[in-house]
Amino acid sequence: MINEEKLIKKVRAGDDQALEKLFHLYEPLVNSIVKQFYLHHYDRKDWDQEAMIVCYEAALVFSPQKGKFSSLYKTKLFNHARTLVRYNMARRRQIYSQSIPLEKADIQGSVNEPCRSELSIPVDETYNNFVNSLSHVELIALLTIIGEISTEYAIDHLNIEAMKLIRARARTLQKMRKVLF
């Protein structure tokens, strides 16, 4: 297509209008690829912007001897969309896809910081029986399991040997599993 080749040469020369015309020429291709992917915070304008950037990059590297521009652009856009999805679905960024802006949150009153809960003896008879069945060392192990005291504190200040505490933690967890499950 002669018109396409002229547009690509103009894009390489830095003509923004030629880039827009080239992009609009391939808008149906962009639509077909965008329909295949979903990103939580991407709207149509974001996808168009990404597609225009890829169109520019494809025009810069296009060589008529290697094939058609449409296949190059389609491949580059598809791969770019997959990269965007991969980036957004990465385990360390999944929390962002589940979060909402503070302005949209329905908050009554002030936001409370998480605080340390006081240890209370369970009221239920099953839990009382479980706690009563523990030895002194196992009670301390239970406190380390639930995070009320650190293992370092138990070893240093309560004079419990490290191996003794490890074994007591294992016994406590085993007893807890029997009672609870």
From TrEMBL:
Keywords: DNA-directed RNA polymerase, Transcription. GO terms for biological process: DNA-templated transcription initiation. GO terms for molecular function: DNA-binding transcription factor activity. The keyword Transcription applies. GO terms for cellular component: DNA-directed RNA polymerase complex. It comes from the Bacteria. This is RNA polymerase subunit sigma.
